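User: Can you write out an input/output pair for a complex, sequences first and structure second?

Assistant: Here is one pair. Inputs:
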Amino acid sequence: MIRGVVIGEVWATRKNPALQGRKLLLVSQLSVHMDGTRHFTGRVIVAMDNLDADVGQEVVVAFGSGARNAIEPGSRSVLVDAAVVQVIDGSST
Amino acid sequence: MIRGVVIGEVWATRKNPALQGRKLLLVSQLSVHMDGTRHFTGRVIVAMDNLDADVGQEVVVAFGSGARNAIEPGSRSVLVDAAVVQVIDGSST
Amino acid sequence: MIRGVVIGEVWATRKNPALQGRKLLLVSQLSVHMDGTRHFTGRVIVAMDNLDADVGQEVVVAFGSGARNAIEPGSRSVLVDAAVVQVIDGSST
Amino acid sequence: MIRGVVIGEVWATRKNPALQGRKLLLVSQLSVHMDGTRHFTGRVIVAMDNLDADVGQEVVVAFGSGARNAIEPGSRSVLVDAAVVQVIDGSST
Amino acid sequence: MIRGVVIGEVWATRKNPALQGRKLLLVSQLSVHMDGTRHFTGRVIVAMDNLDADVGQEVVVAFGSGARNAIEPGSRSVLVDAAVVQVIDGSST
């Protein structure tokens, strides 16, 4: 998984039917400098969200089957490869 | 998933039979600077498209089993690892 | 797998129910210069831990199904894509 | 998938038995600058080839299950994670 | 797959039981400059080895299910995501 900050949302009318009713967030990945300060890596992920994360919040994003298990546990046919799995309250770094 | 812009298409006569009749687009991945402006990351993806996306349009691309579920839901044997899953109408960033 | 150093932990109350009771560590990936000295790549991974790794320790992190097999061997439905699989005692580089 | 140029081949006598009789090519990944010119990203992939691609040719490489479906459609047990899936005739970028 | 050079080994007493008796090598990924000279990308992979590769040797490393098929063909439950699949004798680049 990676840690990032929600920076926005994308929407569309022309899309795969499997995405109907799904919320897609833009998440900017975070890294940590040697001195402990955070910075953005420049990598932006489009992640499905079912935890109602808001812009500005720090989240953990899971990928691949981890993301599919977050949206529909045990399902192999859900159309997703990245999902918000927790809204971070705190961290020791 | 990632956000990108369709920049072209590739075609071939010598190819795996499973790609017969499939449309493959070149998608240039987008990132966002701290000030909110967009820029290209330099990563170019070859993505299968069944939504008739055009050059210049912003799209969301899914990977791995997410892409296979976009092209043939529930199938594990379709030859694809990246697919256009929506044509973006708008975004808050 | 990759080699990294545990730099902290993240916690949350709003999270996917499948993460209940799971410990998530922040691991900073290590690389090696030509002269044999180590440095951080800047990539920070959020990895599930069931080996009680401590901050400052070097660990090996596995990804994807490798991580799921570390947490629940043979299971395809566990929500994880990265896991600590060993706490390094030593290395020849 | 990604677009790249075949730059060579690797061979070995000491190898996993599952690679017996398989051809492995070195493919250098291509990207596109804003002005439309191509350049190499520096990433070199070792890809299995069953399309007889030659050095200097542009190809599309698929990864993961996409690559396994290119070599043995529907099989989950073939030892490969990257495969040449088409030899490019042309592209609009 | 990728091409790399074995630069060392890691060992541990505190580890996932599934890694008992497994050898884990550190492999530094190789790339090729435009003029044909090789250089290291800086990415270091921890790869399982069952081919007795030595420090200094060039190897091919497979990932994901490709790696699992190298260690236990057809198995989905082996704890590995990267494995040495051949010791390179030569290459045309």
